[in-house]
Every structure is written in structure tokens, then in C-alpha cells.
Automatic annotation (TrEMBL):
Job description of the protein: Assembles around the rod to form the L-ring and probably protects the motor/basal body from shearing forces during rotation.
Lineage, broadest ranks: Bacteria, Pseudomonadati, Pseudomonadota, Alphaproteobacteria, Rhodospirillales
Alphabetical GO biological process terms: bacterial-type flagellum-dependent cell motility
Protein name: Flagellar P-ring protein
A cellular-component GO term for this protein: bacterial-type flagellum basal body, distal rod, P ring
InterPro entries: Flag_FlgI
Subunit structure, interactors included: The basal body constitutes a major portion of the flagellar organelle and consists of four rings (L,P,S, and M) mounted on a central rod.
Pfam families listed in its UniProt record: FlgI
Species name: Roseospira marina
Keyword terms of this UniProt record: Bacterial flagellum, Cell projection, Cilium, Flagellum, Periplasm, Signal
Compartments where located: Bacterial flagellum basal body
Gene: flgI
Similarity remark: Belongs to the FlgI family.
Gene Ontology MF terms in the entry: structural molecule activity
Length: 379
């Protein structure tokens, strides 16, 4: 009966040791690393922007006013004439049609017959596109060629509820979307399989990150086939006889993990008071004091009038003014030690009771004093 207990204790001891070993594993670069596909893109694998002009019909009296939007009137006349209906001799005042701009994104390697989503935006005085139907609309690329044709029922996320005394609008009812509305009619030619080399473009150009990507590729393939060309480009030469060709090579490369390097940067949005401080920001020895001078003037006039039934005296307004001055004398001078981390800097500023608006001024002053080893970017 003692042997099972011994085995059980042994298993428990093994599990405890394994848990301790995992707990002591340092937070190395493997945990902070990113896949190559998340920080870079491959040459030629890109989207293309499409745009078109069309008509939406079937609106419930919320379309364009053809008197104010002559292009809507001309578009309706031209469409009806192509269908054999002559309307130039009569009056036309429909309010259930609207001129719209149709936009879409053609994904890389899209083939003829594939369907893509489109976005519909009112061009004229239409109030709501809900319930409308987009008529056949060619979508053009930057070269003026037609790459897709769209048509379908418009889906609008917003709405308008209106009464005699109040109107409620949610979202943007003059903007809609049609899933799978456009059919690809023309492909963008690109031969990926026959390429002898591929350029990897970094989304955030950096010398160190580019070199790390090249080293990771060379280490994985066991040969020197990759090198950085500039901060934003890494050249990858396709090895001969690679199993699966270029597609398999890019599939393997994009799964490699690399720890991207970052610039020491502080990003400030003065409009919203948002501050983003990078991990590598360092501060030299500096003393910080922050205080505001607040002057508050309060007017509480009082009315002085004679006693009831008095035959003398008159009513007068007596001004009473109260002035308060707050110089924030409780705020103290704080010393920030050299080489502090991001967390130390935030803790020090929070200890002063500094808000985001004042923190922006403090960071800019530290940078002006030459004590911040980082770049400040104001949005």
C-alpha cells in the first residue's frame, strides 16, 4: 500500500518543479516578438482602390431634390433613355432616387467572378438611403479601367426619427454598405510564382528591425539569402528548388518571429489631451514643479431699499465683490533621478497631481531643457 503513495508523491514533486521552472523562465524576446506578417508586407501583395458613380432608387421620399441636384436629374434621364424611355419633354421631380458615390477595395489576387463589399455615400441632398437599391454601377481603378460592377440592396446602420418638435438621428443614414455587391470583372496581373526575389516592406521603417528580419530569415533557411536594403525594405532572394516555390517560402517567412525595435518617442494629441509614452523614453536628472494661479471673482450684488411706507429714500443696488486667489502653494518640487523608466516617470508626475493637460506642458518643458532622451511628436 505504500508504493502507490510514493508514485503519487513523485508525480506531485515533478509537477511542482515544472511549475517552478516555468515561473522562472525570463520574459525574453520570444514573448515580445511579433510575426513578420504583422510588422511587414510583401512586394506586390496589396489592395487596389475602386470608385464609381451610381444611382440608388426605391427611397421613401428621402432622395435628392432634382431641382437642387441637376446631376441626379441628368443621370435619371440618361438611364431611362438607355432603356428606351424618353423623359426630356416632361417634368421630372422624383424624390425616391439619389446620386451616390460607390467605393470598394479590390483585394490582392482577386479573380474574375469573386465578390467584394462596397460602400455607398450620398452625393446630393438625400436625407436617408434606407430601403434603397443601387443600380448597376461600374467601379473604376486608378487607370480608368473597370475592375468590378456593383448592384444590390443598400444596408444602412443609422436612422432618423422625426416629429413636429424633435428629431433623433442615430449614425449616418446617408451612408450605407452592400456586402458582396460587386463582381470582379478584371484581374490585376501579377505573377508571384515566377519571382526570383521578393522585397519585404516594413510598416514602421527601422534599421534594427530590418536587420533582425534578415537575420531571422537567414537563420531559418540556413543560408545568406536575405539582407536589408534600407530602413523600410528587406530583400529576400528565392532559393532554387525550395519545396512549394515562392508561395511556400513566403508562408514560412511570414510566421517567423522578430522583436521589432522602437524609437524613444512621446506622442501628444493636444486636442484631446492624450499622451502616449514609448517604452524606451529615458529622463536625465531634472527637478519639476508644477502649479497654477487661479483667480476667482464673484459678484453678489444686493438691493437696498427704504423701509415700508417711508416717505424718503430710494431703492439702490449695492455691489458686493469677492476675490479668491489660489496659487497652489501645497505643490512641491519633485526631483526625477537619471535614467528613470516609463513607469517611474508616470508615477512621479502622478505624485504631483498633474492632469493630462499640464503633463503635456511638463513633457515639452523637459524636452526643451534637454533632459528627455526621446522624440516628441505633436499630433
Amino acid at each position: 500500500m505504500t508504493r502507490p503513495w510514493s508514485v503519487s508523491r513523485f508525480l506531485v514533486a515533478v509537477l511542482v518543479l515544472a511549475a517552478c521552472a516555468l515561473a522562472w523562465v525570463p520574459a525574453g524576446s520570444a514573448w515580445a516578438a511579433s510575426r513578420v506578417k504583422d510588422i511587414a508586407s510583401f512586394e506586390g501583395v496589396r489592395d487596389n482602390i475602386l470608385i464609381g458613380y451610381g444611382l440608388v432608387v426605391g427611397l421613401n421620399g428621402t432622395g435628392d431634390d432634382v431641382d437642387d441636384d441637376p446631376y441626379t436629374r441628368e443621370s435619371l434621364i440618361g438611364m431611362l433613355e438607355r432603356m428606351g424611355v424618353n423623359t426630356r419633354d416632361g417634368e421630372m421631380a422624383p424624390d425616391n432616387s439619389a446620386a451616390v458615390i460607390v467605393t470598394a477595395t479590390l483585394p490582392p489576387f482577386a479573380r474574375q467572378g469573386n465578390r467584394i463589399d462596397v460602400t455607398i455615400s450620398a452625393l446630393g441632398t438625400a436625407e436617408n438611403l434606407m430601403g434603397g437599391t443601387l443600380l448597376v454601377t461600374p467601379l473604376l481603378g486608378a487607370d480608368g479601367e473597370v475592375y468590378a460592377v456593383a448592384q444590390g440592396q443598400v444596408q444602412v446602420g443609422g436612422f432618423v426619427a422625426q416629429g413636429q418638435a424633435e428629431t433623433i438621428t442615430k449614425g449616418v443614414p446617408t451612408n450605407g454598405r452592400i456586402p458582396n455587391a460587386a463582381i470582379v470583372e478584371k484581374e490585376v496581373p501579377f505573377e508571384l510564382a515566377g519571382m526570383e526575389s521578393v522585397k519585404i516592406s516594413l510598416r514602421n521603417p527601422d534599421f534594427t528591425t530590418g536587420r533582425r528580419i534578415a537575420n531571422a530569415i537567414n537563420t531559418y533557411l540556413g543560408t545568406e539569402v536575405s539582407e536589408p536594403l534600407d530602413p523600410g525594405t528587406v530583400l529576400l532572394r528565392v532559393p532554387r528548388g525550395y519545396p512549394g516555390g515562392v508561395v511556400a517560402l513566403l508562408t514560412d517567412v511570414e510566421q517567423l518571429r522578430v522583436e521589432p525595435d522602437q524609437l524613444a518617442r512621446v506622442v501628444i494629441d493636444e486636442q484631446t489631451g492624450t499622451i502616449v509614452i514609448g517604452e524606451n523614453v529615458r529622463i536625465d536628472t531634472v527637478a519639476i514643479a508644477q502649479g497654477n494661479l487661479t483667480i476667482r471673482v464673484t459678484e453678489t450684488p444686493q438691493v437696498s431699499q427704504p423701509a415700508p411706507f417711508s416717505t424718503s429714500g430710494q431703492t439702490a443696488v449695492v455691489p458686493r465683490t469677492q476675490i479668491e486667489v489660489d496659487e497652489d502653494e501645497d505643490n512641491q518640487l519633485t526631483v526625477v533621478n537619471p535614467g528613470v523608466t516609463l513607469q517611474d516617470l508616470v508615477n512621479g508626475l502622478n505624485a504631483l497631481g498633474v492632469g493630462p493637460r499640464d503633463m503635456i506642458s511638463i513633457l515639452q518643458a523637459i524636452k526643451a531643457a534637454g533632459a528627455m532622451q526621446a522624440e516628441i511628436q505633436v499630433m
